[in-house]
């Protein structure tokens, strides 16, 4: 069914996660079979920069490099300097995954904000969009985006208000939707997905996390983007082809993605 429709893009997948060790080729193969042509892989800490870059080399995955707020206590000034160097040398599609997390305990807000500001400055210096992690910090992140404007990006796993969505869109951002849409009880997320401007929406999995309602016992996979596209088409009352075409165009525009190159999935890592 998906063969005749435009190719899909998973704009956020942690393919380097331990859950996928030794199975990345099969995971990518299932995604390609489901019509997912590109899988964007963001880094979360300096110690996984090399693994993420290896996935780009091996499977043609577009990658982002950044220091995630969840791992705040691991990051150092040396890691920021390394990130700066790699953004120049490796030219990822974005700086990410970066942002603020005011939900998880034990993460100093001021230190998070300093780290975010530093990485936004790097994005500005290298003219790169950003992949944003935002939990209970929508307005605070927007404040920093206004203070340090960057070339747009994606607000990953968007969970804010309509007004906050409009603010991100006005700053050149797309909004990521995925597994949260699949829950019948997620009425607010579904309403946002159904009514926000389609030219500002992208699809994502956050695999192996953010498992969909129908697959709680197994890791999430980029192949599920095909299911999310079908769900979004149903929520909006538009053809599946339209969702595939427009969300992929949005991803390509905001992350400046080129066409996916074919890779040999049987080649050893």
TrEMBL record:
Binding site for a divalent metal cation 1: 12, 14, 97, 206
Binding-site list for a divalent metal cation 2: 133, 156
Highest taxon of the lineage: Bacteria
UniProt cross-references to InterPro entries, sorted A to Z: DNase_TatD-rel_CS (IPR018228), Metal_Hydrolase (IPR032466), TatD-like (IPR001130)
Name of a matching Pfam family: TatD_DNase
Keywords linked to the UniProt accession: Hydrolase, Metal-binding
Gene3D superfamilies reported for this sequence: Metal-dependent hydrolases
One function term, GO molecular function aspect: hydrolase activity, acting on ester bonds
Membership in a protein family: Belongs to the metallo-dependent hydrolases superfamily. TatD-type hydrolase family.
Full protein name: TatD family deoxyribonuclease
Species of origin: Crenobacter intestini
């Amino acid at each position: 069914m998906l063969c005749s429709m435009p190719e899909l893009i998973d704009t956020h997948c942690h393919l380097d996660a331990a859950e996928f060790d030794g199975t990345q080729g099969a995971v990518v193969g299932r995604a390609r079979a489901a019509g997912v042509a590109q899988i964007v892989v963001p880094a979360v800490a300096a110690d996984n920069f090399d693994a993420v870059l290896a996935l780009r080399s091996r499977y043609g995955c577009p990658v982002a490099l950044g220091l995630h707020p969840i791992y705040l206590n691991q990051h150092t000034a040396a890691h920021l300097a390394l990130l700066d160097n790699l953004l120049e040398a490796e030219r990822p599609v974005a700086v990410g995954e970066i942002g603020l997390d005011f939900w998880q305990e034990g993460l100093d807000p001021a230190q998070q904000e300093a780290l975010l500001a530093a990485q936004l400055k790097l994005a500005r210096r290298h003219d790169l969009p950003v992949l944003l992690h935002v939990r209970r910090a929508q307005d605070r992140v927007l404040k920093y985006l206004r203070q340090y404007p960057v070339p747009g990006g994606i607000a990953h796993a968007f969970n804010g208000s309509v007004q906050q969505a409009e603010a991100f869109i006005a700053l050149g951002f797309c909004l990521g939707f995925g597994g949260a849409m699949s829950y019948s009880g997620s009425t607010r997320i579904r309403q946002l997905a159904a009514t926000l401007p389609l030219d500002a929406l992208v699809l994502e999995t956050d695999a192996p996390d953010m498992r969909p309602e129908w697959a709680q016992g197994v890791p999430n996979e980029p192949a599920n983007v095909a299911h999310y596209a079908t769900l979004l088409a149903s929520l909006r009352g538009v053809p599946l082809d339209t969702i595939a075409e427009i969300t992929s165009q949005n991803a390509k525009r905001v992350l400046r993605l080129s066409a996916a190159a074919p890779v040999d999935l049987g080649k050893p890592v």
